[in-house]
Structures are given as structure tokens and as C-alpha cells.
Amino acid sequence: MNLIFDIGNTSTKVAVFDGRGKIISIRTKVFSCERLEKLLGHYPLDKAIISTVRNIPDFVIDLATRGIPHVHILSYRSKLPFKNHYKTPETLGPDRIAAVAGAVEAFPGSNILIIDAGSAVTYDFIYGKTFRGGNISPGLSMRFRALHRFTGKLPLGATAERYHSPGRNTHEAITAGVINGLIFEINEYIRTFHERYPGLKVILTGGDSGYLKDRLACKITYMPDIVIDGLNFILEYNAKKTGNNPGSNTDTDSPLLFRTEAG
Question: Which of 31, 151, 171, 234 is most open to solvent, judged by the fewest CB atoms within 10 Å of its CB?
């Protein structure tokens, strides 16, 4: 079984897979050593992957390597199940790498636009089985905070299930401006890409994707767990490439891959 760690800016996702099948998935803002030990004790884990956009807590590595033979820390030097044409691969975030892998697995051979609406909004494009790059813009909460922080009198706004547009007061104006601005942005990205690439698959994911998915005018495929699915795909792919042989030497082509003796 596979243990998946996705450590993001605001929360951590942990999942367990049996091959390609997801057994459990947990999202939490605070993940303790005790909770991880309890999770590890329930499943016979033989592989793990850790993806993070920040520093990895020491207890995660300690516990993951204590009894799991094959542990992989995702980086740009990992072996990937797609061609990467990004000019600066060392700056490509692991969450974007994993999302691309998940998209390639879900729609092999297709042209795909991945929209990940989280702290930032990323637009990543896959042509066939090749990652061609993408764009990054501020996410919803970042836009609200920017209006509040970089102006003298504007209050801090927040998302709302219902709001009037155009706004009838300052709070409504901020709410409608930020939310509609991002919705218009996403719709136009999708429209433009569809014009260039008919038959394009559009995937929506990320922390704000649940809020946005029914507000968009364009057809999308909602895949909130695409990063987790992609991490599992990368883990399986690397395990096959390296033989998944517990206790063997570290793969010199992927120095962040390491293995330990079980037990």
C-alpha cells in the first residue's frame, strides 16, 4: 500500500492507496505525530511519497522512514510520467508537477488545461503527454487581502454564497469585484484555450474549486484530489523505474529518493 503526503501552504493532505485505488484521504490544517502514528498502524505500507511547498516536519520523515521500505520526496529531479518543457524545472512547484501527472493519468494523450484555485491560481497546459508550462495569478483570499493591505480604508472582504453585483456598498463591491474578477478570468482562459485546442479537457482543482465550480460558465471536470492521485501515479512510476527493491542503493538520478530497511 502507498502513503501519500501533500503538504501545502495552508493544509496537509494524507492519503492511502492500494495500487491505484484510494482507501482513505484526510485533509487537515494541523497534523500531529500521534495522528500519523495511528494512521500508519492501520495499513501495511510499503511505499510513500512526500510533496511539500514548504519545509517537511521532522516527524513526518522519521515516521515515514521507520517502517516503509520505499520513500520518495518529490522534486524536479524525480522521474516523471510526462515530458517537461518548463525552462526552469527547479522552480516548478511539486503541487503543479503532481497535478500534471494526475491529469496525464486521467486523460492520456489529451490536451489539458489544469486550473488549480488555491492560495494562488495556476493554469497549467499539457499538450499530448508534454507539459508546456502555465500561468500563475493571485487566489481569492490573496486578492481580498491585497485590497485591504494596500489601500488606506478598504475593509477585508471574504467569499459569500450570495452577493449583489454591482455592489450596493463597499463590502458588496469588494466581494463582487474579487469573486467576479476571478470567475471572468477563469472563463476567459478556458474560452481562449478551447479556441486554440478544440476538444480540450479542463480540470478544476484546489482549495477554492468547490466554491467556484458551479459559478463558471464553461464546462469543467471537477477533480479535487488530482494532486493526491498524481502523487500516487508518480510514486508507482518511480518504484517501477528503480525496481522497488527495499534496501538497495539510492537512485543517483533522483537523489531525493531514499529507502530504508522495513522495521
Answer: 151
Read off the pTM: 0.87
Domains defined along the chain, listed by start: 2-78+228-259 (3.30.420.40), 92-225 (3.30.420.40)
Q: Which residue has the cell 467569499?
A: 159
Cell numbers placing 52: 511539500
| Residue in the structure block whose three cell numbers are 501545502 | 8
Q: Are 142 and 119 in contact (CB under 8 A)?
A: yes
Catalytic annotation present for 95: yes
Least reliable range by pLDDT among 101-110, 122-131, 241-250: 241-250
Which one of the listed residues 6, 95, 229, 251 is annotated catalytic?
A: 95
- The burial of 133, by beta-carbon neighbours within 10 Å (0-12 exposed, 13-18 middle, 19 or more buried), is given as middle
